[in-house]
Specification:
This protein has 719 residues and is an all-beta fold. It has four helices and 38 strands.
């Protein structure tokens, strides 16, 4: 029905020890004997362009988070990990527990029912791409191979929702030859909270040496919470469970098969919201559950001159959340329940050349079908009268198909390259009629919607000035599919047209490379963005004060920006990193909604920070003669303040949260063999601000970051 409430809140940009925000991260030696040696920053291989390449030669602004360093960190979910990357901000959804992602200041109007994501998100080969919601999963980052963060439009190779970036979470495949086992456990205490505890383990078992193996991951964390409601202390406690199974087979030298199943379940006692005294005035329970089941099959055949890969996946993604409306400011004696379910099947076939001769090419076809169901309804106290419309039920169906290709030609051998790419996509989105539900008053109209198409090009000129330094200039586009209006919007105002696809165009020059015998690595990019007809939220207020959320096209947004990161090996065992990003995204023209000035010319977008930055220091040194290695890490992240526009009874209101500076420190002891012990402190300064104000009329719903948390983590690795 809705009753609609703005559902977005921003996240504390927690920091991660020694790899904060850099494009390529140091890999420290495992033994104490190497701690005093001259350690170079090692090469990092990525598959961002659907082939294995050195990250320093890929003409994209990209950050890589290596899995072994994530295992050593104490970051508990993917949102906290991504918040350490330059130009990336994560926004937890108040009513879902999932996350909305901002890259270079570009994002959807909100996480639920306010437009699809502007950032493509993949767990291995499983795409998360909702039809009119931008939430992404928040799984445990244990036993990952790496996380790749691609900044800028990637519409050619990754399609819809890669409007201004791509997140690729890549897990470890089974090792066909070697048994392995690793585990970690941690216990910590949160100021004003209780005890947090949890653990993970991963086991790899070859079944037929060199031919068949299985890898399993299990994890569970219990958080105590630190926010108090009227009836319960530490009401925002949580239980997070993570299970993953992968089976790999190599029937022949040229054929490989990887099957994967991933289950994640995050259950929160209440949202992470309160006033400055960590009090939430809710009297009713507000549980939130965020769960997904993802299944995939990846089959690769390597021929002499090319490889062909088939990627099939199925996703089931249910979300369930409650919001107590009886708190002061809402004044409704009841609860708002929000339920969301996405079920999707995707199939992609990719054909890529081997690096033989002056030509490289990648071609592919893609198909995805998705059905999303979104429901909101009110549970009212007895004898409370409200208008008849008490339930809102929406079902969308998407069928998308695409064909893409990218061709690279060496103009001067090993020095100058020209890349040209193109993708043609056809999307059909249909909003289904509502089901009549016994005992509920619903609206049922004929289905509406239709197909829309997009053609997104990419052109890149790359100059490999030396074997270690690369310059590039690129032109690229990303897009989002258009979506029809919901039945409620059409019922309220049938003259509002469906939202058309929006296109973001990016002009970029950048440089990356290694200097001083690989002791310094850097990644810089300067860009200009033009975002045409961006999809935006328009709230329509009915005569009964019910708010119907419509998605409409605005005019245009543009701006300049800069990303930069630097990683340095200062001394043997001592590594430092800094990063900085800035963007000037703004509305080119005034935007009006229902006669109200939604945006003025020159105004920044909602949920769009202008600056992010980070710094880190990592020092590894031998202790005594027994083979012990000490590792000290100190890091900090900064995110500038963000504003949002909120429609209230008295008109449109802009509210701004606090800028965030977050500090983290740790000290670890590594033995010469299998064990390490890590003493850590998160939110070292115990910052208590709010990155974003959820509802200006309901201060106890402001997002609150986790207070200072101090703990101990123990790691074991068999190999």
């Amino acid at each position: 029905m809705p009753l609609r409430f703005n559902d977005s809140v921003s996240i504390l940009a927690l920091v991660v020890g020694s790899f904060t925000g850099t494009g390529c991260y140091a890999q420290m030696a495992n033994g104490a004997a190497d701690a005093g040696a001259s350690v170079q920053l090692k090469e990092v291989v990525v598959t961002a362009e659907k082939r294995a390449e050195n990250v320093q030669k890929v003409p994209i602004s990209i950050s890589v988070l290596k899995g072994e360093r994530l295992d050593q960190s104490t970051l508990e979910n993917m949102s906290a990990v991504l918040a350490t990357v330059p130009s990336v901000t994560t926004i937890p959804s108040f009513q879902s527990g999932a996350a909305q992602i901002v890259v270079r200041g570009v994002t959807a109007s909100g996480p639920l029912f306010e437009g699809s994501s502007t950032v493509a998100y993949y767990l291995d080969s499983v795409p998360f791409a909702m039809i009119r919601s931008s939430v992404e999963p928040d799984p445990d980052p244990f036993d990952l191979q790496r996380v790749e963060v691609l900044r800028g439009p990637q519409g050619t190779l990754y399609g819809a929702t890669a409007l201004d970036g791509v997140i690729r979470v890549l897990t470890n495949d089974p090792d066909l030859s070697n048994f392995d086992f690793k585990a970690r456990t941690a216990v910590s205490g949160t100021e004003d909270g209780g005890v947090n505890k949890g653990g993970d383990f991963a086991v790899n078992v070859p079944i037929v040496a060199g031919k068949l193996a299985v890898r399993a991951v299990v994890g569970e964390d219990d958080w105590s919470g630190w926010i108090n409601s009227l009836k319960q202390k530490h009401v925002n406690d949580a239980t997070l469970r993570n299970y993953r199974l992968k089976v790999a087979a190599q029937p022949t030298d040229d054929l490989s098969i990887v099957l994967s199943a991933w289950h994640s379940s995050n259950q929160y006692g209440a949202p992470q919201s309160a006033n400055g005294e960590n009090q939430n005035l809710a009297s009713n329970p507000q549980p939130v559950t965020d769960t997904f089941d993802a299944y995939s099959a990846k089959i690769t055949y390597d021929a002499k001159a090319f490889s062909v890969t088939s990627m099939s996946s199925y996703l089931s993604y249910p979300i369930d959340g409650y919001l107590d409306l009886s708190v002061p400011g809402f004044g409704v004696n009841g609860d708002l329940n929000t339920r969301f379910l996405s079920q999707a099947f995707a199939q992609e076939v990719d054909l890529s050349s081997k690096d033989i001769g002056p030509w490289r090419w990648t071609d592919g076809v893609f198909y995805r079908t998705d059905q999303d169901r979104f429901t909101q309804y009110l549970n009212l106290a007895p004898n409370v009268f409200l208008p008849d419309i008490l339930r809102y039920d929406l079902a969308d169906r998407l069928n998308t198909s695409a064909i893409y290709g990218q061709l690279t030609r060496e103009l001067i051998s090993d020095t100058l390259e020209l890349t040209v790419g193109l993708r043609y996509s056809h999307d059909g989105v249909t909003t289904q009629p509502l089901r009549q539900i016994p005992g509920q008053s619903t609206i049922s109209l004929a289905p509406q919607g239709g197909p829309n198409t997009a053609t997104t090009p990419r052109v890149v000129l790359t100059w490999h000035a030396t074997s270690d330094v690369t310059f590039y200039a690129s032109y690229s586009q990303g897009f989002r599919a258009g979506i029809p209006q919901s039945e409620l919007v059409t019922f309220v105002d049938p003259n509002i047209p469906p939202a058309k696809p929006d296109i973001l165009t990016n002009y970029e020059i950048g440089s990356k490379g290694s200097l001083f015998d690989h002791r310094v690595t850097y990644d810089t990019a300067l860009y200009h963005v033009y975002w045409g007809a961006p999809q935006a939220l328009l709230d329509i207020v009915t005569q009964n004060n019910i708010i119907a959320p419509a998605t409409v096209n605005g005019t245009s947004v543009s701006g300049n920006g800069f990303d930069g990161s630097l990683q340095m090996q200062l001394l043997p065992g001592l590594t430092a990193g800094v990063d900085f990003s800035w963007n000037s995204l703004h509305q080119n023209h005034p935007v009006y909604a229902a006669g109200l000035p939604l945006f003025s010319a020159g105004q920044r977008l909602a949920f769009s920070p202008e600056y992010t930055g980070g710094a880190s220091l990592d020092y590894a040194f031998p202790i005594g003669e027994g083979g012990l290695l000490g590792r000290f890490a100190l890091s900090a992240n900064y995110t500038s303040d963000m504003a949002q526009n909120e429609l209230t009874k008295n008109g449109l209101l802009w509210v701004t949260g606090n800028s965030m500076v977050n500090v983290r420190a740790s000290f670890a002891l590594d033995t010469s063999e299998h064990w390490s012990v890590n003493l850590f402190a998160d939110n070292l300064s115990n910052y208590r601000g709010t990155p974003e104000i959820y509802q200006p009329t309901v201060p106890t719903l402001d997002l609150r970051v986790r207070p200072r948390t101090i703990g101990l983590e123990v790691n074991y690795h068999y190999r």
